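Data deposition worksheet. Section B asks for the primary sequence of the deposited chain exactly as it was used as input, without tags or linkers unless they were present during the calculation. Section C holds the resulting structure in token form. Section D is free text for depositor observations; keep each observation to a single sentence. Incomplete worksheets are returned to the depositor.
Section A, Depositor: J.P.
Section B:
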Amino acid sequence: MTLIKSISGIRGTIGGVPGNALTPIDIVKFTYAYCEKLRTRLPKPEGYRYKVVVGKDARLSGEMVENLVCGTIVACGVDVVRCGFASTPTTELAVRFSGADGGIILTASHNPRQWNALKLLNERGEFLSAAEGQEILDCAEKEDFNFCEVDSLGTIEDHDFTDEHIDSVLALEAVDVPAIKNAHFKVVLDAINSVGGIIMPRLLSRLGVECIGLNCDPTGDFAHNPEPLPANLVDLCSRVVSEKADLGISVDPDVDRLAFICEDGKPFVEEYTLVSVADYLLERAAAKAGEQGITLEQATAPYKPVTCSNLSSSRALRDVTEKWGGEYKASAVGEVNVTTLMHKEMAIIGGEGNGGVIYPASHCGRDAMVGVALFLSSLAHKKVSVSALKATLPAYFIAKNRLEVSDKALIDKILSQLKVIYASENINDIDGVKISFEESREWVHLRRSNTEPIIRIYAEAPTQERAEKLAEDVIAVARGIIG
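Section C:
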């Protein structure tokens, strides 16, 4: 049994002993703390009715968790807008659509079926800051409960925001609906038997795309490991080929991560979801600048396009950004860190190498629906196959490793000494240590895990062999520091 408490919420396995798993007691405790801190985070005049949106993915424990969360919110004197089955980005947008003061998403994202989680949103439908999340954790640990009397109980309103989400995607300027319809795309969709099977076929239908569904029944009984990685998408790859489809689409259970399969059944690679979409948007921005008689390199803020991803994401995003004359910025790992940087830099696009596309013109949260609509727009304009599109992007390969180290002081020593050993290279230490070898276009990133006694070690290079060799070399140096 596992319970992980973090600044973005709590997640854990269902059942077991309170404090060691995601039990009803833990769910109530953290929901209460969220409502309690809602009032201090957003102080309002006496008598104001706070409102919180609640949405869930289709996992088996969803209804049980939803009942506990909604009941607790009502008991705190806060009104609930219950979305029912809703993707994570749908719930995020629902906060804005309904004018709510916050939201709670019930999903464990790519975790297996025995997991669930409470992800906490602010009034903009974005994840709470680190400080706000810590306040909720501290409040929950105090267990100082004081629920409302009967005349002050909150209310529950049911509202499905699926079509409003789709409407907002189709209304985006960069989404070329006529071009997509004229392309007559045929796709195979793997929705892992969760809420992607509800919203994604509707979006594709309105885009005029023929959709062949695979695992699109939202039972929560996941057909395979729910993380959209190549090893888990074998059936999707073969189905794309047998159906002679233009591409395959894979989403995780809460539809914030997105991966594509090329027409030949080979993975487009999750890292390149964001890169391909960014390339399309930057090309559009360059064309608009050209109409004004300037290049993007000559443009100045806020008109110079900025892209953002985290330190562990592919260098390919930086390469395509600089190719078009834009500017690339990197954040610490974590969606809230990426979105914080995107707000600061007024980024045109951002996200993470795990298939998370964040497009501020829609909202600052990972959104697979936005990613699909932008990708299909790009494909329709370029009039090439998905594999041909992939061939136009910079080629990089990532090796992912770990080093077991339980002593925090020893981890600090390793990271500190690596900065000294590789001082002649480009060093970034905002989140662990990232060493960039600019001349060879390679990097390695070492960071402490928040959930396990390990150092995560990601390395990237123009070939898989070089990426693996780079990781091995740095691990050997780290082992030497350990002694």
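Section D:
The chain has four domains: 3-160, 165-261, 271-391, 397-482.
The chain has a mean pLDDT of 95.
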